[in-house]
Amino acid sequence: MKITSSAFQESANIPLKFTCDGAGTSPPLQIADVPAGAKSLVLIVDDPDAPSGLFTHWIVWNISPRTGSFGEGSAPNGVHGTNDFGKSGYGGPCPPSGTHRYYFRIFALDRELDLPFGAKRGQLDAAMKGHVVGQGELMGRYSRKK
């Protein structure tokens, strides 16, 4: 399973417009090679380098496995959770210092999840456990200019 972006390559810098220093819009993402039999997809964007530990920037679940892409500034159709900014939707990279890694992960599940809008990351992780049948990852980097 693959997740890619036409806006940046694996391990490359995330363009300014997709961060808190720019427009803060979500980058375009493409999904490929979804396993046959997948019933839903989950999108998770997080930063493992945050000072307080793993920081979640975006979570969406119950995305159709037929979703091949979504454009810049748009979100996949699905149920949106609450990110660590305390909001639903995409929150762009905004590291307090240094260069951070941002992981855009896509998971294929063998079922849809029974989670309400606004659920938090811990609830999502628990609901996904034992149901992942495929996954892909794209990592981008960002550091703020002082």
Keywords:
8 strands; 3-stranded antiparallel sheet; globular; 146 residues; 35% strand; mainly beta
Write a concise synopsis of the structure shown.
It contains 1 helix and 8 strands. The protein is mainly β and 146 residues long. The strands form 2 sheets. It has a 5-stranded antiparallel β-sheet, with helices on one face.
Outline the structure in words.
There is one protein chain. By secondary structure, the protein is mainly β. It is 5% helix and 35% strand. The protein contains one helix and eight strands. The chain has one helix at residues 121-128, and strands spanning 2-4, 29-32, 40-47, 55-63, 69-70, 79-80, 99-109, 132-143. The strands form two sheets. It has a five-stranded antiparallel β-sheet, with helices on one face. The protein is globular, with a radius of gyration of 14 Å. The model has no long low-confidence stretch (mean pLDDT 97).
